[in-house]
Amino acid sequence: MRVMLIVDGERHNLDADTGRTLADVLGTECGIAGYRVACPDGTCGACAVTLDGDEIRSCLMLAVQADGAKVTTIGDR
Ligand code: FES
Domains of the chain (ranges plus CATH)? Predict the structure, then answer.
C-alpha cells in the first residue's frame, strides 16, 4: 500500500506493508537519524512523535493509519 507522510517538513511517498508500524517506517524508510524503538510494549516513549500535532507512540500505530499526516520527530521539535 502507498503511504504519504510529511516527516519533519519533508514529503515521503512509501510502500508500506499493512502490518508495518509507523516507528518501523520512520526508522527504515524515512532514515530518521537517531530514531529508535526501545521497548517491546509501548511503555518507554522513546518512539514518541507528534502526528498532526498530537503526541503518539509510533510503535503502537500502523504506518497506513498515518497516511497523509504531518509527523514531527523528536529531533525537529
Ligand atoms: S519504543 Fe517504547 S514506547 Fe515505542
Answer: 2-76 (3.10.20.30)
